[in-house]
Amino acid sequence: MENKRKRCIFISFIGVMLFLFVSFYNKLISPNGSSQPVMVSPQSKLDQWEDPGPYHVAYPRNYRFIMDDTATCRNRTPFLLLMVPVAPSDVEARDTIRKTWGSEKSVLGQTVETLFILGLPGGPDHEQQQEKLHQENLQHRDLIQGRFQDTYRNLTIKTMLTLEWLSLYCTKASYYMKIDSDMLLHVPNLVKLLLDPKTPKQKYMSGLVWWHSPVIRNPFNRFYMPARVFAEPEYPPYPLGMAYVMSLDLPAKLLQMSSQIKPIYIEDAYLGMCLQRLGLAPTDPPEDTMFLVLPKHPLSNCRLSKVIAVTTESRQQMMSYWQKSKRLEAEC
User: Fold this and answer.
1) What is its EC number (predicted)?
2) For 212-233, what is each residue's pLDDT tens digit?
């Protein structure tokens, strides 16, 4: 009786091993279970990352655009397109921008348009938030939404999806600026810079450039990056993510490079890595007063008249500065 029981266990063991072997063999031949070989591109290899870990992001993926019915770059082509990454719930930021610099549509004879880029809302009320976004977009037609979770750690995903959208629809436009929702943008000064004959029409990216940005090795710092993820002591040069502008030939080129570089969660440093792989470097603005990240408030009339993008401390301050800048323009 004991021998019979042992024989049954042995036969079961052999059966399990054969099953595992056949399953492994089928997967080795084809990930989708067919007997035909599958061609795997570099992009699809990157798609197989299931857990990016704490220092990378899950890109590329088929995130898709679930809201992008704007006429911008479809029925009309702007000279300059302003793209604002913003949290789904921050309707106050979007409305403030719509009332201030986002309302400027024709500047120095050039067409300017503003869009907002966002991901999926989270939390227990995400369905209600999504419905509110739908109603907001019906009114303004200026939301671009991708199917990814909108979090700070996913900012690189949001940035890369912005480049995807631009490369799909806006190749005929001239320039694009990514600008955070807490920034005051002096649109005439930006357009004046872009119209300057000395400003390149291609392979151009500018902003407040970090030329020797040290890689943070302190594990208690929010921007900590271990050497096993990025070995160099400094990141390649990149414009600070608060506001940067690029010519519209660059999005497709940056996307092509991104298939070769595993994306880190620090979005502006990652763009610097892609730029370096392209053999390009960002361009300093003509004046260091054009992009201000930690200004001393309140700004004087002189500083406000020269600035392109500056960090503000509140919606009220942004509104006040914008109204003041319009008065200064009228006086000049």
Assistant:
1) 2.4.1.-
2) 999 999 999 999 999 999 999 9
Asked if 114 contacts 187 with a C-beta cutoff of 8 angstroms, the reply is: no
d(CA 190, CA 245): 9
In the chain the first and final C-alpha atoms are separated, in Å, by 105
**β-strand pairing of 175-179 with 238-247:** antiparallel
Instruction: Supply the DSSP symbol for 309.
Output: E
Q: Please tell me what DSSP assigns to residue 112.
A: E
Q: What are the Cα distances from residue 74, in Å, to 82, 173, 193, 313?
A: 15, 11, 26, 35
- Tokens 């037609």 sit at which residue? 141
Alpha carbons within 13 angstroms on the beta-carbon side of residue 96 total 23
CA distance 238 to 267: 10
What totals of helices (H) and strands (E) does the chain contain, helices first? 10, 11
Alpha-carbon span 263 to 249, nearest angstrom = 21
Distance CA 25, CA 193 (A): 60
Buried b (16+ CB within 10 A) or exposed e, 245-262: bbbbebbebbbebbeeeb
Token pair of 98 as six digits: 């719509």
Interatomic CA distance for residues 66 and 167, integer angstroms: 17
Distance CA 332, CA 328 (A): 6
The Cα–Cα gap between 214 and 311 comes to 22
pTM (two decimals): 0.83
* Distance separating alpha carbons of residues 310 and 298, to the nearest angstrom: 12
How does pLDDT run across 288-299, given as a tens digit for each residue?
999 999 999 999
- Residue bearing the bigger pLDDT, 141 or 20: 141
CA distance 57 to 50: 10
- Residue carrying the six token digits 């986002």: 102
- β-strand partners of 45: none
Q: CA 152, CA 163: separation in Å to the nearest integer?
A: 18
